[in-house]
Amino acid sequence: MNDHPGLPSHVPLVVATRGGFVESVHYGSIAVVDARGALLAGVGDAAFPVFTRSTLKPFQALPFVSDGGPARFGFSAEQVALMCASHSGEPRQVVAVADMLARAGCDERKLGCGMHPPLFFGATHTPVPPDLAPTPLHHNCSGKHAGFLAWCRLHAEPLDGYLDPVHPLQRAIRRSLAALLECDEGELVAGTDGCSAPNYAMPLARLAGGYARLVSEGRRGAGPLGVIFRAMTEHPDMVSGESRGDLLFAQAGRGDWLAKAGAEGVQAIGVASRGIGIAVKIADGGARAVRVATLSALAQLGLLPPDAAALLRAWGDDEIRNYAGIVTGRLVPVFTLD
Questions:
Q1: How many Cα atoms sit within 13 Å of 284 on the Cβ side?
Q2: CB–CB of 268/277 below 8 Å?
Q3: Is residue 15 left, alpha or beta, with left meaning phi > 0 and alpha meaning psi from -120 to 50?
Q4: pLDDT per residue as tens digits for the range 81-92
Q5: For residues 96 and 77, what is the distance between their CA atoms, to the nearest angstrom?
Q6: pTM for the complete prediction?
Q7: H helix or E strand, kind and range, residue 315
Q8: Using 50, 70 and 90 to split pLDDT, how confident is the model at 3?
Q9: Whether the Cβ atoms of residue 215 and residue 32 lie closer than 8 Å to each other
């Protein structure tokens, strides 16, 4: 029972052991929701608002897609996927984002996301080349921002200030998001994401419901959600990158799962064949716990055939090793979905 108003009632999801004893506990919540918004299963506090972080990206792309932007600028399905991506900065991804900007009459100097070394190196445990000079194109959100700038060109709105919450682009995103989620705009708790774009907190169940609608309507139709659904499921290599979770989830789901991770321990998955969305939040933001919790949730829902389970376990290894390679403990899921 939560005795502190304003704090979520998270529960233990994953423990880290050492010497056969529990050393650390990762608290969190999970929600499984259908396209009508009904909570089908869950654990913890599905009603407490969590910041969506990068799981918001498919919905941030929706106004541009709804307004015919991809056709207007000749964006490929791979480039639509990049608008929804936290990409790894792999060469083909960087080239594709640069092409998006060129088609919209912009260049990388207009990107407001900042810069960091490509995520590829950390994901693949590859040393960063000493002569690498990252640019904004390498930022994992550069595809989203290229789409933002293209929306501004499409509607003849100013490029400067495109990340300001009062800019017409951000107002359009907020309206579109509220309509999709069937809530008032005022219910969306505003914050600023790591890439400087506005981000929103919402109940975990509402986030799961958004993904349920995305895959349910996207699978059936040729409308904007269909464009985004097909781009993300047919080109998951653009949504994340080599050795990263969203790509591995998509491969395990064989076109049936649409997966998008967010910072601070957030993971969303839409399962098209069942018309459901799954949202996971790890309270302390621990990436090691979110993959173990998500894998366990998928298994409890009966969604993991043996080959998919093997693929995902290779990525979500439950062994904790020290720098000498010795196994010192394990990550163990300790929850049961209600």
A1: 13
A2: yes
A3: beta
A4: 999 999 999 999
A5: 11
A6: 0.95
A7: helix 306-315
A8: low
A9: no
